[in-house]
Write a structure and sequence with these properties.
Blueprint: E1 3-9, H1 14-27, E2 32-35, H2 39-51, E3 61-62, E4 73-76, E5 87-91, E6 104-110, H3 114-129, E7 133-139, E8 145-147
Parallel strand pairs: 1-6, 1-7, 2-4, 2-5, 3-4, 5-6
Antiparallel strand pairs: 7-8
Length: about 150
């Protein structure tokens, strides 16, 4: 069973939080896949990860690029895992696939979007019922993560 984390964004945007989480995942030696709910969001994240910091970028590709299997971070809108990722990030209401092939899954949701909060609650119930080890993390005012459940 995958370890499943829910990250409740209250102080920053997805664009602020995701690069650091991806860097930590790569630092563990993991490959990552980021599943978004729309092609537009996937493409916006694709551009953002090249420019999110002046002195760095995250090497990545998307499911529409050649050599998806070679990417350390793959952006997608599907439930495929062509790069053999150990961690899957689900953003903007993406529906999770079977998570049994992953060591960890991370749901990132915007606390200011009622639809995303409601979807996260539903996913929480489904993941718990599926026997996954589930934890809930919320941002503090200084943008750190605090475990709440």
């Amino acid at each position: 069973m995958a370890e499943v984390l829910f990250y409740h964004l209250t102080e920053s945007t997805l664009e602020d939080a995701l690069p650091g989480l991806l860097e930590r995942s790569l630092g563990r030696g993991w490959r990552a896949v980021v599943q978004s709910g729309t092609d537009e969001r996937r493409d916006a994240l694709d551009q953002h990860l090249w420019t999110f910091r002046d002195d760095s970028f995250l090497a990545h590709g998307s499911d529409r690029d050649p050599h998806a299997a070679d990417q350390p971070v793959l952006l997608t809108t599907t439930d495929a895992n062509p790069n053999g990722a150990q961690i899957r990030f689900l953003v903007d209401g993406a529906s999770p696939p079977d998570l049994s092939a992953y060591e960890r899954a991370v749901f990132l949701f915007d606390g200011h979007d009622a639809g995303q909060v409601e979807a996260a609650r539903g996913h929480w119930k489904t993941m718990k019922a599926g026997g996954h080890a589930v934890t809930y993390w919320q941002q503090t005012p200084d943008r750190r993560w605090e475990r709440k459940a």
